Amino acid sequence: MVLCLAQSSDPTVREIASRVGVTERAVHRILVELEEAGYLTRKRDGRRNTYQIHRARPLRHPIEAHRTIGALIEAVSS
């Protein structure tokens, strides 16, 4: 899901759900969790939301905590 947001900062929940293959409800829940954990900032822009990924945030799992979300995005996008 973060990769979808890295490609476009303003996809709709429906677009994300379609790309990822999960329900819109699941997308909404995951976006809220990512925002609460500090990985995303959501900004309302008219009727849409835009998302900013905080690429400097470390990954959550202790084994990968020395890596950042930005490094993960770069590794997968390359």
Question: What this model shows, in words?
Answer:
The protein is an alpha+beta fold. 46% of the residues lie in helices and 15% in strands. The longest helix is centred in the middle third of the chain and has 13 residues, at 24-36. The protein has a two-stranded antiparallel ribbon with strand order 1-2. The protein has one domain (2-77): Arc Repressor Mutant, subunit A (Orthogonal Bundle), CATH 1.10.10.10. The chain is built from four helices and two strands. Helix 2 packs across helix 3.
What is the compact description of this entry?
Helix content is 46%, strand content 15%. The chain has helices at 2-7, 13-20, 24-36, 69-77; strands at residues 40-45, 48-53.
List strands and helices in order, with pairings.
Layout: H1 2-7, H2 13-20, H3 24-36, E1 40-45, E2 48-53, H4 69-77
Antiparallel strand pairs: 1-2
Helix pairs in contact: 2-3
Radius of gyration computed on alpha carbons: 13 Å
SSE topology string: HHHEEH
Name the poorly predicted regions: none
Query: How much is the average pLDDT?
Result: 93
CATH class: Mainly Alpha
Query: What percentage of residues falls in helices of 4 or more residues?
Result: 40-55%
- Write down how many β-strands occur, each being a DSSP E stretch of 2 or more residues: 2
Q: Biggest sheet, in brief? A: 2 strands, antiparallel
- Tell me the distance between the termini: 17 Å
Identify the CATH homologous superfamily. Answer: Winged helix-like DNA-binding domain superfamily/Winged helix DNA-binding domain
Q: Do you know the CATH architecture?
A: Orthogonal Bundle
Give the percentage of residues in beta strands: 15-25%
